[in-house]
Amino acid sequence: MSDDVDRAPVAPIVWTFCGTSALHLTDGQYSLMIDPFFSRVSIARAATRKIAPDLNLIERGLHEAGIGKVDAVFVSHAHHDHVMDAPLTAWKYECSLYGSPSTVNVGVGSPLHADSMHAIAPGAVVPVGTFSVRVLAAKHGHPNLAPGEIKAAFPTRPVWGLRYRDGGAFSFVVEHNSATTLIHPGANYIAGALDGTTVDTLFLGIAGSWARCKTFRRRLWRSVVEAAAPRVLIPVHWDDFGAPLSRPLVLRRWSRGSFESSARFLEQECGVAGITLHWPRPFTATMMSNGNP
Ligand SMILES: [Zn+2]
């Protein structure tokens, strides 16, 4: 490492949450996005129609979030609410797309050049300037309406929503000289997957599974939150991703009860564990906190 890098001041990470598990992380010099999703196609529509990303909505969302630069786009799994807008986002910023082989097959149906699409697997470490992204195996939460792989390249025209099969799921550990961050979009766990990984901040997906049963929730808490031991926990993937981003985020109508129970659980457990629970303000650039008031 050169003296210049040694002497370089440590720039904090600034993050922006854009609904679902769409996140932008930057230190002002380099930046990355996880699961960008601005087209906001609902499950009902995806289950019954042919769907396609909407470049106007993507550009509007990125503009509203103040995202001027992205150096790499990562996709946690290939359901439409995670992957659909990722290839066009990478294309817009002329950067690389990283995801499972299913994600790469979705990318083939976009204008993104094949050289910019990279299949990743658990254990991979991807350097993005001052960041380093480690890929962890993860499990999709329940329910999973489109399990399996995307085995063929997507066409450039709209496709049936259920063709967006999950293709396997990842979590991402983002290392940076100011902080270590775990992005865990799926509300599920693999026992032992986080052994040896402790982080400062955890972005935790709380869709679906959290309400499944108290035992499951307790195991998930132990395997993910206790294992990663964050100082700050930021819940994501709690909003109705079929609702347009032109209005404030809302909860899914049928999941309000489970959301309230999840929120109570998180408040209680974070309080006991001394973890700062931070509900994110969408489309608001926020400095990564170390958990101190
Ligand atoms: Zn999914």
Question: How would you concisely characterize the structure shown here?
Answer:
One of its GO terms (molecular function) is hydrolase activity. With 293 residues, the protein is an alpha/beta fold. It contains 8 helices and 16 strands.
Task: Write structural notes for this entry.
The structure is a single chain. The protein contains 8 helices and 16 strands. With 293 residues, it is α/β, with parallel strands linked by helices. The chain has a single domain (13-285), classed as 4-Layer Sandwich (Metallo-beta-lactamase, Chain A). The strands form 3 sheets. It has a 7-stranded mixed β-sheet. Helix 7 (214-228) links the parallel strand 13 (201-205) and strand 14 (232-236). The chain is globular and about 50 Å long. The relative contact order is 0.16. Bound molecules: zinc ion. The site of zinc ion (ZN) has 4 residues, from loops.
How many individual helices?
A: 8
Strand content: 15-25%
Distance, first to last CA: 34 Å
In total, how many beta strands?
A: 16
List keywords for this structure.
RibonucZ/Hydroxyglut_hydro, binds zinc ion, hydrolase activity, Metallo-beta-lactamase, Chain A, disordered N terminus, single chain, alpha/beta, 8 helices, 293 residues, globular, seven-stranded mixed β-sheet, 16 strands, UPF0173_UPF0282_UlaG_hydrolase
